[in-house]
């Protein structure tokens, strides 16, 4: 097992006076940040937290959560992240992490050295104690739950070396270096948010933790991870921006938006990735070609038929279950359960294998329909699910997150030149706000559950 100083310690030693962190309250150089984190680590140690334990942090992004994670790395502790949620959902995740609920101890960081985590509840495993060690890049560093869009969330465990392999590979193409600032705009309980932290730790640049108002938080920032609607609003707002690079998520990014950003000197990139691969696997600067980009360094991609298999140094150690790790790879490859095809050396994503259904003997991919519906002006995102049908077996139904529900005739006029008619949804629903709360991804299984209830009311 390799042992080394943590990235935080290395930057504090090599670049102590450079700006490391901006928060709503103050700024920290690398040396000041290291001092702060060491105090938090000492406080956690005094409270009984030791190397080898699993610490579960429940909460949205905050400066305190970042300190907690960095301190956990210094202690050799595995940090598990989860969003604020209903108690039964939280208990379900805790049962994945801990064999015995009586071994779960409630922790609050209410010491003189650390601001109280007003929005965060912290749990720590009270078992398997051993001597505190230094940072080890091959120790488990994080557990992140999958979105659970198609079922029960899985607890994905990564080491720091795997996260840093992801960061270094992306940053060979998507430039981010000292003097730049990346906004922590995505939650750390999703791998896309944690990936921002590791890109910062790899580069020695600056991380900004905002107050939650994107129009204000984006000021002074050069790099951001956004969805297309967020970027569009920022550009339409006409406010001055210091952005130079934006990594966009989502299924559809209009070329016109990229061209509009380019007039402001902003490079727009998109990619394909997943929790098990420590975020981004392929990426490219947006152009006329509809694809997810080229394979990034430290990753491998293989197609078996249309099924996408992923390899390389960014893959997780496995799924975490009550102290045991179940490997995710077979012969070095992880089955993503996504479908794709090559366009030259670029990967085009067709959709999830489990989102394929048969209607009247024809194969239909939910994501193909969603991509077309997402092009409508008022639609933020579209989720398509199959509903049982006596004649066809299944038919597609669309649930739209939209500023206002488009008129059906307008939708169908849009579909006319883009989709064969058997792929057209037979029904459209406006997505309720309750399904949008909690995460950056909408749960497909919850959408289907809600949709079935609507059908039962008819």
Layout of secondary structure:
Blueprint: H1 7-14, E1 19-22, E2 27-29, H2 30-46, E3 54-58, H3 63-75, E4 78-82, H4 87-97, E5 104-107, E6 121-125, E7 140-145, E8 155-159, H5 160-171, E9 181-183, H6 191-203, E10 206-208, H7 214-217, E11 223-227, H8 228-236, E12 245-249, H9 255-262, E13 267-274, E14 279-285, E15 294-295, E16 299-304, E17 307-312, E18 318-321, E19 324-326, E20 334-343, E21 346-352, E22 356-359, E23 362-365, H10 366-373, E24 379-389, E25 393-402, H11 408-415, E26 428-430, H12 444-456
Parallel strand pairs: 1-10, 3-4, 4-7, 9-10, 11-12, 12-13, 25-26
Antiparallel strand pairs: 1-2, 3-6, 5-6, 7-8, 8-18, 13-14, 14-15, 16-17, 17-20, 18-19, 20-21, 22-23, 24-25
CATH superfamily of the largest domain: ANL, N-terminal domain
Quick check: average pLDDT?
87
Q: Which regions are unreliable across 5 or more consecutive residues at pLDDT < 50? A: 105-120, 126-133
What is the CA-CA span between the terminal residues? 61 Å
Structural class category: alpha/beta
**Beta-strand percentage range:** 25-35%
- Can you count the helices? 12
Q: Sheet bearing the most strands, described?
A: 8 strands, mixed
CATH architecture of the largest domain: 3-Layer(aba) Sandwich
């Amino acid at each position: 097992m390799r042992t080394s100083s943590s990235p935080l310690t290395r930057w504090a030693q090599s670049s102590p006076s450079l700006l490391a962190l901006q928060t709503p309250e103050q700024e920290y150089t690398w040396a000041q940040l290291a001092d702060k984190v060491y105090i938090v680590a000492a406080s956690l140690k005094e409270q009984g937290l030791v190397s080898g334990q699993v610490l579960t942090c429940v909460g949205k992004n905050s400066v305190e959560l970042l300190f907690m994670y960095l301190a956990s790395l210094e202690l050799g502790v595995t940090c598990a992240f989860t969003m604020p949620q209903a108690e039964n959902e939280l208990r379900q995740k805790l049962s994945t992490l801990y064999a015995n609920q009586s071994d779960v101890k409630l922790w609050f960081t209410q010491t003189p050295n650390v601001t109280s985590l007003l929005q965060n509840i912290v749990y720590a495993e009270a078992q398997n104690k051993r001597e505190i060690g230094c940072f080890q890049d091959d120790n488990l560093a994080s557990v992140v739950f999958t979105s659970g869009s198609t079922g029960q969330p899985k607890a994905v465990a990564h080491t720091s070396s795997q996260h840093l392999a992801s960061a270094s590979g992306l940053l060979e193409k998507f430039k981010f270096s000292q003097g730049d600032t990346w906004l922590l705009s995505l939650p750390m309980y999703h791998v896309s948010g944690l990936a921002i932290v590791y890109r910062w730790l790899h580069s020695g640049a600056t991380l900004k933790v905002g107050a939650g108002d994107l129009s204000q938080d984006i000021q002074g920032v050069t790099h951001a991870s956004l969805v297309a609607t967020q970027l569009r609003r920022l550009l339409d707002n006409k406010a001055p921006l210091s952005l130079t690079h934006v990594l966009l998520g989502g299924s559809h990014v209009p070329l016109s938006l990229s061209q509009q950003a380019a007039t402001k000197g902003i490079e727009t990139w998109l990619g394909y990735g997943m929790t098990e691969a420590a975020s981004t696997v392929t990426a490219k600067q947006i152009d006329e070609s509809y694809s997810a980009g080229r394979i990034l360094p430290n990753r491998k991609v293989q197609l078996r038929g249309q099924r996408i298999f992923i390899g390389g140094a960014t893959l997780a150690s496995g799924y975490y279950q009550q102290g045991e790790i179940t490997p995710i790879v077979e012969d070095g490859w992880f089955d993503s359960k996504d479908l794709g095809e090559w366009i030259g050396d670029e990967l085009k994503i067709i959709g999830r294998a489990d989102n394929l259904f048969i209607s009247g003997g024809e194969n239909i991919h939910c994501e193909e329909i969603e991509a077309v519906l997402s092009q409508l002006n008022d639609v933020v995102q579209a989720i398509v699910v199959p509903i049982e049908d006596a004649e066809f077996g299944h038919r597609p139904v669309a649930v739209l997150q939209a500023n206002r529900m488009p008129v059906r005739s307008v939708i169908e006029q849009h579909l006319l030149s883009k989709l064969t008619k058997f792929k057209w949804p037979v029904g459209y629903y406006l997505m309720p706000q309750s399904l949008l709360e909690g995460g950056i991804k909408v749960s497909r299984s919850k959408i289907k559950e809600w949709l079935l209830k609507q059908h039962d009311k008819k």
